[in-house]
Amino acid sequence: MDPVGQDINLNSPNKGLGPAGGVDSLTEGGAMGVAAANTLPPGLTEEEAEELYSDLAKVEEEINTLRQVLLAKEKHSAELKRKLGLSPLNELKQNLTKGWQDVQTSNAYVRTTEKLGEWNEKVTGSELYLTASETLDGIAQSEAYKKTSETLSVAGQKTTAAFSTMGTVLSRKLGDMRNSPTFKSFEDKVGNIKYMVVGPRRNGEAVQSPTETNPVQDNAPF
To answer: Around 51, how many Cα atoms within 13 Å sit in the side-chain half-sphere?
Structure first.
């Protein structure tokens, strides 16, 4: 039977009836369980226990029927949403938008907004706030504040100029050092060391040492 077409009227004579013998089997099982267990609560007879088990079986069967109906309804709803092109993300956006609109129109939100507006007016209109604002304006317009601002500005400009001058001096010193006899003598020594490491030949030709003034003659006459 289609779960949607099932009789879910709780007052119907067919309520809770599933497959054939469903309730009877549960009732018989409940009675057998009571007889077998023989652990009834104090003051409860076997007849009362059987009746309670019978009611429990009917309620559980009704719950199962309602679950099947709900599942069928959910599937039908998902199919309708798919045909309408309503994706889960769009549905979430719509729910969030509607929820925020509900919050904005709620009495609590309106009262809170009004209360915050009242507090803002009270704070901005208070003597303490006005006095503090006037004090800050007075400080900004005072001669001491202006002098301090000018001093800091001049100090920043002087610092920038000092760093620029220092960079120029360092560049000049490095240039003078490179052109000094000491540095040239150091370069000559480095050249001699390179000549000793590389060897006297390069590409089949004789290599002249940086300190030699005359080329080496390999085929000198006897």
So the answer is: 5
